[in-house]
Design a protein that fits this description.
The protein has helices spanning about 1-10, 20-30, 40-45, 65-80, 85-90, 110-140, 145-150, 155-185, 195-215, 220-240, 250-260, 260-275, 280-305; strands at about 35, 55-60, 100-105. By secondary structure, the chain is mainly α. The chain is elongated, with a radius of gyration of 24 Å.
Length: about 300
């Protein structure tokens, strides 16, 4: 039963954690969302009818996911207490085994500490992508994209020239969001601001490259607007870790989550705001996020034709 409980709590296909320090590190880095701490002699205490406690550590940085995990743990606790095998092995009625749930990084369970960093991820994805997509499609609608066809300007130079102003505008948006988070919503930044700044710059660049890719297969501004909104909001809310951890998704949903930039920026935003993380802790997420920039730019170059048919 304990092995079943442990596997469900970790939400990862990994071996049991070797020590308490490793448990804390993985919980802090976001590798796991919950962990079970079973004290020494737990089975012996249950067999002898003594009081027993099991601690469930839950990452409270995202209250929605934490609430779901807590519900699962409490349900499994009740299932354990209702197991007839528990009572038949004891000589006398034993006191119930208690499970102590401890929320880490958001002890008051306030949603503002989760929603504000999540808004960074949504706002800095949706609007830069939309503006970038509209910028390229507008050139096609107005006919000014002909300049690309009749000049020696390369496709890469054209796309980068369009992208840089919107990256700068996205960083201005980031500064406004930071001021709102710190002074209006009173959400402190516990981690590394340089990490958040570098991660945001990489993320905004990837967001504009994402919009640039969408613009290559749309012909009108209306199509670019609605297409970009659908292709950003839907994956962001369903597959990028806002509603459920990406590691708990299966099949195509998990693939879509892994191939979406927000899945790697959201841990950076939440980690710096709520968990006090730095470069060493989030190097993997930052490095993976950086790979989206050349990949999306290359796809845009391949799909953008130098001459219209």
């Amino acid at each position: 039963y304990l092995e079943e409980l442990r596997g469900s709590a970790y939400f990862l296909e990994r071996p049991p954690l070797p020590n308490y320090a490793d448990l804390q590190q993985r919980l802090q880095n976001g590798d796991i969302q919950a962990a079970i701490e079973v004290p020494p002699g737990f089975g012996r205490d249950i067999a002898r009818g003594r009081p027993a406690w099991v601690a469930a550590w839950i990452d409270g940085a995202n209250p929605f996911i934490a609430q779901t995990i807590r519900g699962y743990l409490q349900a499994m606790h009740q299932l354990y207490l209702a197991d007839p095998a528990v009572g038949t092995t004891q000589p006398a009625p034993a006191p119930p085994a208690d499970i102590e749930v401890r929320l880490k990084y958001n002890q008051n369970f306030e949603s503002v500490y989760s929603m504000v960093p999540a808004q960074f991820a949504i706002e800095l994805l949706e609007f830069p992508a939309i503006m970038m997509a509209l910028a390229v499609v507008r050139e096609r609608e107005l006919g000014s994209i002909t300049n690309l066809y009749v000049t020696p300007l390369t496709k890469l130079e054209f796309l980068l020239g369009k992208q840089v102003p919107y990256v700068a505008l996205g960083m201005v948006n980031f500064c406004v969001l930071m001021l709102l988070a710190l002074f209006v919503f009173q959400v402190p930044l516990k981690g590394s601001f340089p990490l958040l700044l570098v991660g945001t710059l990489t993320y905004v660049t990837a967001s504009t490259a994402y919009g640039m890719l969408i613009s290559t297969f749309t012909r009108t501004q209306i199509a670019a607007l609605f297409g970009t909104m659908i292709l950003t909001i839907l994956p962001a809310t369903m597959f990028a870790g806002m509603m459920s951890p990406v590691s708990s998704l299966q099949g195509m949903a998990r693939i879509m989550g892994r191939l979406f930039p927000m899945s790697y920026y959201l841990p950076i935003s939440l980690g710096t705001f709520s968990k006090g993380l730095g470069f060493a802790d989030l190097a993997t997420q930052l490095g993976t996020l950086a790979l989206f920039v050349p990949a999306l730019t290359l796809l845009s170059l391949l799909m953008l034709r130098k001459q219209e048919r």
